[in-house]
Amino acid sequence: MDELKKELFAYVKENTFKETDSLKSDTKIFIEGVFDSMGFALLLDFLETKFQIQAEDSDLVEENFESIDAIADFIVRKNPELV
Amino acid sequence: MSKPKFSRDILKIQDMETLIDQLCTRIREDITVRHKRYGAVIGLSGGIDSSVCMALTARAIGPEKMLGVMMPEKDSSPDSEELARELAAKFGVRVIKEVITGALDGFGCYARRDQAVKDVVPEYDPSTHKMKIGIKHEGKGSKLPPLFHLTVVNPDGSETVKRLPSLQMRTIIAASNFKQRSRMSLVYYHAEQLHYAVIGTPNKHEVAQGFFVKFGDGGGDLFPIGNLYKTQVYQIAEYLGVPKGIIDRTPTTDTYSAEQTQEEFFYEFPHDIMDLLWYAYENDYDPAEVSPVMGMSAEEIERNYRNFERRSETTEYLRTPPINDYIFI
Prior knowledge:
In chain A, 52% of the residues lie in helices and 0% in strands. Chain A is an all-alpha fold. In chain A, helix 1 packs across helix 4 (68-78). Chain A is globular, with a radius of gyration of 12 Å. Classes of the chains: A mainly alpha, B alpha/beta.
């Protein structure tokens, strides 16, 4: 799980235009404006490719994407082999 | 001065004649004094915004100093041309038609777009299927940004809807934007040939929320309705006598082969609701005051304010002119 979160941190830091010094695993990334619509679409592409998961429309809820913690939990639920 | 109490009528134009006079004086000055041009060219879509801009400009400088250009392409609704002709005839403006399908073919607009659509829906065939893209909100006021979805209308009328991966989303949008940019290119051809200025037609929402194509329909030399809410554009249309067929028409994008409203493509609400929410946001009204008027909870109003803030920020790039302060010596 830690390795997974590390990869997510690296992705977010690389792909946001916001400063990320204060980014934590529970930062609400969409409330804080870390990602916009384009950022969200790219994030989904990254997650689906990198972690071999498929995000269905019903998965696109705040609980699954609001923070790095939430995204990591979501990925593991979708692909339990990752832990 | 204290703010007026928030109400459903807050965007009602109180003194229409004075406003029209002010707009026309400014249009005349901008065209002749500021831009030093003999007249004005406008692209006519048959929609409310270009119609009101044309009617205002014709009143400001005289219809004989105007040219309206209709620029349909193979995905355009045939109604658009009919309505634009009716409008131009009513106001005495000369109108010409320039079909841009060939230019768009040359740019690869259709081929690039259709390939991206096929990547997502392999059975899509542009000769038998129609398509459109639009945002899908995960519940109004969701904190997640909206994502674009592709809708393919099958020959039997059924629809296949898929979320767009980012590459295909960007490809479809970039290819489709050839349409607005080709139109602006043609409008400037006529403007330069006649030594006229170009009237840009975005309204306040389109400018503020970034619902325009940079150097496409976001181009022009003056934006007469750039500070007017859509509700007010309709009030002016009624006053100036814009044909009823244009006023009653649901605003569409007229960009994709399948019919699509602007609300579906971009806005979350019908324009009258959107206008009031945006006015409240822009003028810093307390959500508690706005809530009973709009029939929404204060939290919902607050969430919409945040969405507007986010949309303004993410579309700032579109409103930013080329950066030119590279002054180092």
